[in-house]
Predict the 3D structure of the following.
Amino acid sequence: MEQDHLRPDRLARCREHRRDGRRRGPPVRQRRLKLTLKNHNEGQGGAGDQTPRRLYVYSAGILRQRRLGRILAGGGYRLALGLPGPGDEVAVWGQSPYAARGERVAARRGVPVVRIEDAWLRSLHPGRDGEPPLGLLVDHTGVHFDGRAPSDLETLLATHPLDDHALLGRARAGIARLQASGLSKFSAFDPDAPLPEPGYVLVIDQTRDDAAVRASGADRNRFLEMLYWAQEENPGRRILIRSHPETRTGHRDGHFTAADAGGRIAFCDGDAAPRSLLDGAVAVYTVSSQMGFEAILAGHRPRVFGMPFYAGWGLSSDEAPIPRRGRSLTRVQLFAAAMLLYPLWYDPCRERPCSFEDAVGALEARVRAWREDRAGWVAEGMRLWKRRHVQQFFGGQKPVIFADGHAARTRAEASGRRRMVWAGKARDEAAVRVEDGFLRSRGLGAALVPPLSLVLDDLGIYYDPTRPSRLERLIAASPGLRPDELDRARLLIERLTASGVTKYTPGGPLPDLPGGRRILVPGQVEDDASVLLGSPQIGRNAELLARVRAEAPDAVLIWKPHPDVAAGLRPGAVEAPERWADVVLDRVDTGALLRQVDEVWTMTSLTGFEALLRGAAVTVLGAPFYAGWGLTRDLGPVPARRLGGARPTLEGLVHAALIACPRYRDPVSGLPCPVEVVLDRLESGTIPAPGPARRGLSKLQGLLAGHAHLWRR
C-alpha cells in the first residue's frame, strides 16, 4: 500500500489520527461544524458591555440555523463547540429527542442546561417549511410547556409584581394588536376564509409525539377523553376539531382521525385564522396547545387537560391542577410576562434584538405581503425600469407576470392571478392600481430611483378625488383607531420632523430667509395626474404663484420648484418667478425649510401634508388626499363626501397615509418591512444607489424631457 512508503514517524501520526478520528468523529464534519459556528458567532457580542456567556451545543440542527445564533447573541450568549467548563452552559432544544446528548454532557461536566424553544409568534409558515423563527424562549430552569417542574416563565408568573403601569399598558396594546391583525404562532391564514356558523365548541388537536403533549402525560386516549367531555358538557352543540398547522400541511399526524368525526363532530381545517375561530366558539378544549393561551386572550376560559404554562393562574379550568401555581393573574398580566418579559425577540430586517412591538411589526409586514401576493399577480402598464422593483415588491410568493391589454386579462383569468396596473395607465376597473407611496426614496422617481413604498388600491387611487380610494376609506375610519395605533403615529411624526425626512429626502443647506409672514409655494409637475385630476381650477405653477401673491400681498413668498422640474425631467418651469416670489429656492432641504415657514399654499403637493406634520398652516387650491378633513384651509373642489364626514386627527391621517395604506420593502434585507425600518434607511442613507445603466438612462430622459411621450411609456 502507498502508506508503506511513508516514514515511520508519519505513519505513526496517520494511525493516531485515524484513532482520534474514530473517537472524535470525522475530521471533515468537525471542520464543517466549526465553520458553521464561525458563521453563527461572526460579529456577535454580548448584551451591552458584558462578556457573552458560552452556550455549548451538540445539535447540528441548532447550528444550521444562523438566525438562532444571532438571536442568542442578542441575549448575551455565544455558541461554542467542545466541552464546557465552569461558568459555561449547555444549550439543548426543549425536550427534543436530541436534547439527551447535551444533557449527558452537562451532567458529566457539572454545568447547567439551557433549554431553547420557538417564541409564541414564530413565523408565517411552520419551521418544517424552512422558515426561521422571529424569536426564542431561553429557559435556565426548565421548559415552559412542562408543568411537572418549574421554569423561568413560571417563576416570572409566580413572583414578578406585574403591576407596572407602562408594562401593563404595553400588554393591553399588544393583545389588541394581535387580535386586530390575526397573528398567531404560524400566521399563513386567509382573513377572508369562510368561517363556520358561530355557536360551536372548539376542540384543539396537537401533533403526535409533540414534546408539549408528552410533558402533559397525554396520548391519543387523553385527546379522546377531551373530546368525550366536550360532548358531555355541551349537549346539542356542534363540536369542531381544529387540526395543527403541521398536520394540515402533511408534516406530522395529529391525535384525531377521520374516524373520530361524525354526527355533530366535524373537522375545521380551512385557512381561517385561530382568532377568527375563537371568536365564534362558545367553549374551548385543549391539552396544552398555544391556542389555549390565545383563547384566554380572546376572553375564553379554556378547559385544559394538560399542564401548559397558562394553566393554574385562575384563567382556565384545569383537569390536572398544578399545586405550585396558586396565584391569580389577569390575562393582561399573563400576556405581559409571557410575551413581553420572557422571550428574546428579533428584527429580521435590522438583524438585531428588538422589542415585542418591533417583532410584531416585522411579522405584520410579512403576513400582509403573503396575503396580498399569494394568488400571484399579472402586472400591466409597467415601464421597463420599474419591473424589477415591482417583482421585488410583489413576487415573493409567485413571480409577477408582465403583460398588457388583452394578454394581461387572459393570463390572469387562466392562472387565477390578480391584475395590477400602474395607476396612471389604469383603464380597467377590475385591476388593482399601483402607485408610489409617500416615503418614497432618497432621489427622484423621474431619475429612476426605485421606490421604498408602494400603494395598492382596489377602489381608486389616492390622488384622484373624483372617486373614493382605499386611502380615503382608511382616513375616514381613523377616528376609531386604538390608543396604541395613535401612539405609533405620534412617534412617527416626531421622528419625521426631527430627522427632516420627506418624500425624496436629499437637499442642500438652507440660506437665511427674510423676516415676516413666510409662505412656501411648492411647485408641481404640471402634467402630473394629481394636478390634472385634483386641481381643475388652477393647474399651472405660474397661476398658483399669481393667486398666492394676490391673496397675500404683504407676505414673504418663497417659491420652490418641483425637484423633477428643476432637474429638467418634467414640465412645469416658471419663467421669471421673481415677478411674484420674494425668494426662489432650488435643491434645498424641504424638511428644514418647512420648519422656517408659517404657511404652505399648494394645489395638491405632498409638501402640504409634510407641512401639517410640522405644524404649519396649509391652504389647498386643489383636492389632495389630506384636504377636506378639517386639517387644512380648503379653497379647491374638495369632495362633499369628505366635508360632511369624519374629522380625523393629524395622528389618524398619518396612520392611514404612512402606516396602514402603503407597503414597504427594506432595500437592505429585501424583506417586507414596517415604515419604521424604511425611516431608519432614509435617516442613515443605507440605501443601494442606482447602477450606472440606470443613471445613464436617467440622463437620457433629461435630454428628452421635451419629448416625454417618447419615454414615459
